[in-house]
Amino acid sequence: MQVAGFRLPASSSLLLWLLLWELVGRAEVTILLPPITAIAARLVEIVPTPSFAEALAITGQAFFLGNAIAILVGVPVGVLMGRSRIADELLLPWVNLFVSAPLSALVPVLMLLFGIGQTTIVTTVFLFAVWIIVLDTRAGVRGIPPSLLEMARCYGAGPLQCFFKIHLLAALPEILTGIRMGVIRGVKGVVIGQLLVSVVGFGHLFEIYSSNFLMEHFWALLFVLFAFAVLVAEGLAWLERRVDYFAAARH
Amino acid sequence: MSAPSTATATRPTAPSTRPIVEVRGVSKVYGKVRALHAIDLEFEPGRLTSLLGPSGCGKTTLLKIIAGLIPPSEGEVRIQGRPVTGPGPERAFVFQDFALLPWATVLKNVAFGLELRGVPRAEREERARHWIAEVGLAGFEQSYPHQLSGGMRQRVGLARALAVDAQVLLMDEPFSAVDEQTRRKFQEDLLGLVAREKKTFLFVTHSIEEAVYLSDRIVLLSPRPGRVAGIVEPKIRRDGDPERIRRDPVYLDTVETIWRGLKGYVE
Ligand SMILES: Nc1ncnc2c1ncn2[C@@H]1O[C@H](COP(=O)(O)OP(=O)(O)OP(=O)(O)O)[C@@H](O)[C@H]1O
Ligand SMILES: [Mg+2]
């Protein structure tokens, strides 16, 4: 953006929107939209509180556990589908179904299965993240030149060695893309799960804040979650760029 | 086609040593495609045999069956008298497209076969360095495949095959992806290697000149389904100047004879 010959940084449009928000907030148009400065002040106030720390810990735990299980399950299943036609034909319809299904609708069922608590949230994160990891890994494995696997077998590699020394590494760029997209979906999973379960973590705080019309608290918490999601996505994108040199040189 | 009938062409004579590779009645069918039909061949240690034939006649298929990568539909392959059920340490493969690990350095690529066999790091890297130098790539140990030319990549593939010290080297058109000068240099180097290493080389090629230049024996395969159409044993003296071979009248005659024999298929 350029104003009067000055080159402004890319984030300056955001500043404009924040200013507009502040004005609307000050004008007290609606109780739902408090001034942004008040939200910032509230942010500074609630972040150090024990209830926030506790919510953050429990959310982080569900998030990392759910994603870890999704990666540990998704990558091997994707590799299996990429190399075995039978496995692929058996599993692909389901994976395609779930990757685009509105999974939030399943959370109530999960609550019946796993109770109202952390297990349900971990499972929600897992379900949000796993399918895209499977699909991307599968695509990466299918793109491996057959001669690379023949080479490995020829020099004595068993199935396990093929998995760790060929499949994982040869499909690494696609696997990392899958993991990044899975983790971003996982953020949605953890938030939706907590909102629906609403007795643990941020979901519980959201419940308290919104039922008491504590809008400044509510927004402050939302900003924390947004920042968290962006941070996770950027961190993974950075990791992905680091292996890109070899993705470009692969063929 | 009958075996070309000149002084240079002979039927396989009684093997002087016990064959290391025996191919017995091997046929291969892919669905409806009959790729190979009733192949009987023996390969003796210390010799280089070329498989020569038109595109699609099953040369790669035969090599992969011998490598244990694909099972034959009929017949069997024996290595040192034992039937083949899969790949084994006595055989190494050199791939047409090199099949290098793009994420690994030359050193790691050459050591890969040894790594799979559980050879400790220090030892396998020492052996890899030796073979990297042997194929003329000293100084490129830490390079990645994409930083090398096609010819250099194939040298990496060759070094990897040599590093595992297999008795049988299976080479599928190893020089087809490199330019003519590199190819000639390669061929000369390979002759040196055959003379020094006393290994059994099975070499697939499209090129009559290449087959005659390199081989102790040339197996001519017919178009699909591939069968043994003839066997030629060029009696060319390979000591001395490698350039001289290309002017040797026996070399030129043999090329001519094989070409006349194969012409029938082209027309
Ligand atoms: N996996 C496969 N499935 C089906 N058909 C195959 C398969 N592999 C090879 N074929 C067929 O078998 C025949 C022989 O193939 P092969 O690759 O062995 O020939 P080739 O002599 O090596 O040919 P080229 O000189 O072109 O490399 C071909 O007609 C090919 O189409
Ligand atoms: Mg071939």
Structure description:
The complex is a heterodimer of chains A (251) and B (267). A two-stranded antiparallel sheet of chain A has the order 1-2. Chain A contains eleven helices and two strands, in the order ββααααααααααα. Chain A has 251 residues and is an all-alpha fold. Chain A has a single domain (50-248), classed as MetI-like (MetI-like fold). Chain B is built from eight helices and ten strands. The two termini of chain B are 14 Å apart. Residues 1-15 of chain B have low confidence and may be disordered. Chains A and B meet through helix 7 and helix 8 of A and strand 6 and helix 2 of B. Residues 30, 33, 35, 55-61, 206, 224 of chain B line the site of adenosine-5'-triphosphate (ATP).
List keywords for this structure.
heterodimer, A: 251 residues, mainly alpha, MetI-like fold, two-stranded antiparallel ribbon, 80% helix, globular, B: 267 residues, alpha/beta, six-stranded mixed β-sheet, 8 helices, 10 strands, disordered N terminus, binds adenosine-5'-triphosphate, binds magnesium ion
CATH architectural type of chain A: Orthogonal Bundle
Q: How much beta of chain B, percentage-wise?
A: 15-25%
Q: Give me the Rg of chain A, rounded.
A: 22 Å
Q: Which segments of chain B are poorly predicted (pLDDT under 50) over 5 or more consecutive residues?
A: 1-15
Strand order of the largest sheet of chain A: 1-2
CATH third-tier fold name of chain A: MetI-like fold
Number of helices of chain A: 11
**Multimer state:** heterodimer
Name the poorly predicted regions of chain A. Answer: none
CATH first level of chain A: Mainly Alpha
- Please, how many helices of chain B? 8
Helix content of chain A: over 70%
Widest sheet, order of strands of chain B: 6-7-8-3-9-10
Hetero groups in this structure are: adenosine-5'-triphosphate, magnesium ion
The tally of domains of chain A stands at 1
